[in-house]
Amino acid sequence: xxxxxxxxxxxxxxxxxxxxxxxxxxxxxxxxxxxxxxxxxxxxxxxxxxxxxxxxxxxxxxxxxxxxxxxxxxxxxxxxxxxxxxxxxxxxxxxxxxxxxxxxxxxxxxxxxxxxxxxxxxxxxxxxxxxxxxxxxxxxxxxxxxxxxxxxxxxxxxxxxxxxxxxxxxxxxxxxxxxxxxxxxxxxxxxxxxxxxxxxxxxxxxxxxxxxxxxxxxxxxxxxxxxxxxxxxxxxxxxxxxxxxxxxxxxxxxxxxxxxxxxxxxxxxxxxxxxxxxxxxxxxxxxxxxxxxxxxxxxxxxxxxxxxxxxxxxxxxxxxxxxxxxxxxxxxxxxxxxxxxxxxxxxxxxxxxxxxxxxxxxxxxxxxxxxxxxxxxxxxxxxxxxxxxxxxxxxxxxxxxxxxxxxxxxxxxxxxxxxxxxxxxxxxxxxxxxxxxxxxxxxxxxxxxx
Length: 450
Prior knowledge:
Blueprint: E1 10-14, H1 23-35, E2 40-43, H2 61-76, E3 80-85, H3 96-110, E4 116-120, H4 131-136, H5 140-155, E5 163-167, H6 178-186, E6 192-195, H7 207-217, E7 221-225, E8 256-260, H8 265-280, H9 287-299, H10 304-311, H11 325-340, H12 343-367, H13 371-402, H14 406-425, H15 434-449
C-alpha cells in the first residue's frame, strides 16, 4: 500500500522508567528512525527530572545544548521532535502561575523550532491533591480539561500551527470510563488523545475498539503502544520479538501511533524495525519475515543466524503466547522418539541441540560485529548459555541412567543440580518455562526410580 495511506504520525517515544538514553544514543536512534520511515521522536524519559519532578525549572545549559542538537537532527531529516512535559506530580491546576510556567517552558522549545508538544498526566493519583484545586474543579478530569485547554488556547497566539498530544491519567480501557470520557468529550478535537488500548500493555489492538473509543471520547485514539518497553515489572524480559496482533485497519481509525522503546536502544531497534514494517504496510505485514529482516540488519550478516537462534528463546512478552517454539518442538520429538522409536537417536539429537545452543552463546558472547547489541543482550545470552549447560547435563543423566550406568548417572545428576542452581540465580527470562518444565520432568522421573 502507499505510504500515504497509513498512520499519519509514526513515532517512537523514549518514555520508559530507568536510565535514559545517552545523547549519542538519541542521535543514533533519530537517524535509525528516519531510515525506517518513522517521522517523529517523542522526548519523554521518565527519569529526566526537568520533564517531571522539576518541570517548573529550566533545563541546565548542557542539556539545552543537547536538545538543540536533537531538534536540529530531526529537522534535517524532515521529522518532528516532540517535546513532552509531565507536570502532574506537583502542578496546582488552579494556580495561574503554574499555567504560565508550563506554557513558558513550551514556548522556549517553540522558539527553537519545535511545533509538536505533549502534555502528559500519566502515572499520577486519580484524584485532586491541592485544596485550591479541590475547591475549583469538579474532579481530576475537569482540571485536566481546563489546563490543557488553557495551554492550547495560549499556543494559538504563537504564530505557526502547533500540535498538542494529551496523555490522560487513565490511559487504558474502552474509552467509556468516567474520567477519560469526560476528558475526551470536553477537549478540543484538534488535540490528540493518547491511549494504550484495553490494557497498559495490550496483547491486541483492534479497529473495533478504536471505533468505540472515538464514539465515547469524540477523539480518534493516538496509540501509545507499550512495546517493546521492558521497564519496571518487565525488566527481566528482553523484548526483541516482532510486533504482533495489531489490526491492519487500525490506521483508518487512529490519529497516529507511537512505540515506547526499551532502555536498551540497540536491542530496541529489532522490534522497532518490525513495527516500522507494520506501520508502512499494515495489510502486507508478516511478523516473522519482518523479524528475520530486522535481526539480519541489526545483528549483521555474520551473526544473524546465531542471534536469531538465541532470539527465538527470548520472546516472552504480553504479545507472545508461545516461548521457545523450536525448543518445545524438539522436546516433544525427543519424548516420542525415546518412548516409541530409537532411544540412542533421540538422546543424540537432543544432545546436539544443547551443544549448538552453547556454541551459539559462545559466538555471541565472544565478539559480535555489533558490539553494542552484544553488550546490551549479554545478560540474556549468558542465561541462554547456562540453560545449554543444564540441558547437556540432563541428557547425560538420561543417557547413563537408562543404560544402567548408575555411578555416571549420579555424577550427572549432581552436575544437573549444580548448573540448575546457577541458572536459577540469573533473573533474566530466557526459554520461558520450557526448560524448567523439561528439567522438572526429568527430576520427577529420578525421584520415582530412587
